[in-house]
Amino acid sequence: MPTTSSPTPLSPASLSITCILRDPLPPTRADVLTLFGTEMPRYGVHTELVGQGGREAGGPGWPAGGMHVVGRLHSPLASFCSPLWDLMGLWRALGGLRGLMRGRRPDCLQVRDKVASGVLGRVAAALLRVPFVYWMSFPIVEGYAVRRDDIARHQRGPIGRLKWAAHALRAWASWHVIYRLVLPGARHIFVQSDAMADWLAGKGFPRERMTAVPMGVDAALFDRATVEPVADPRLDGRRVVLYLGRIAQSRKSDFLLDVTEELRRSCPEVLLVIAGDAPSNDEMEWMRREIAARGLGQHVLLTGWLPQRTALGYAVRAEVGLAPMPRGVLGDTMSPTKVVEYMALGIPTVATDIPDQRLVLAQSGAGLCVPMEAQAFAAAVRELLNNPEQARQFAMRGPAYVKAHRTYDILGRNVARTYKKILME
Fold first, then answer.
1. Structural domains in the chain?
2. What is the pTM for the complete model shown?
3. Torsion sign, CA atoms 348, 353, 357, 363
């Protein structure tokens, strides 16, 4: 059932953004929850969120404006119905016919990571005579292409060919929609990294119409002094190496097991803690099968979903944090959160050399950056385990860098300044 929370009254000096999201509502990602829920209102920027609900029904409202939930993200009908649901949610955000008759409209209409609803947003913005903004936190078209190619490699027979054709059609249609219809009509494009901005500029979009907003952390939440280490005896006496986040075949998460196999040869007490869940039960079972097939049951602790504070309790017991991300269009344009989270918690990091991670570790001196090869990764981890002074120096540098560059209060100030520039020009 559609749900709506009452919007917060706005002062005349405030800016109001109606934002159609791909993420489930209520939001949980820090780049929505913290950036728009906490930081933007401090600068007079309020948001009306429109989108589909997550797995959990209900939840808190949206104190930074209004929240309009229509449909369920995990419904079998979501792929086909989400543009219609977004239209219904947008209608509610505008106050329906009464609101339109009274001239109610936002200062800007923004769409985040949606394809068909990107067209809806552009058309609606034109009808309302307000600027249209697009927020690209993920190169979704290229993600569809990767899925198409994965099906071609791993699925055979008539069903496999049918799935490939469906994903090929989706990738082709999405490319034309995003790059021919949606982005050309955007007054401004927010992207996740400078590398993504450069990549889009290579496609012909003006670089001056883009702002990079890398992933950050909530400084208070990721303050190591406030995190209680978890009391799990399985970690006692072990050299704990951590992966904090979700696992998936598309992320090549079995690479973590390749690294662990390399490490246990010279460090039999190593324990890889994977503190996170998978997007589906099938993906979790795939990882469990991989662990068993490699005989790594004594060297890998797969926790599954954990409350965030518990996950952080595991994190602070680790000696090294791992941040593997495959190279390619997807990885090279992303700004993963993991490196920044490890650094904020004072955990020395080993990360692959995608542009954003390479930049952060080069500027901070808080970790090692290597190619995504099991031997190179294992050698870097081994270097930190065997050199406690180097690890200590890395751990000390991380929090200071994050506080200076990658907390959401800093990112929020820059984003608010950009909104006010593009909406008041």
1. 3-216+408-424 (3.40.50.2000), 224-403 (3.40.50.2000)
2. 0.86
3. positive
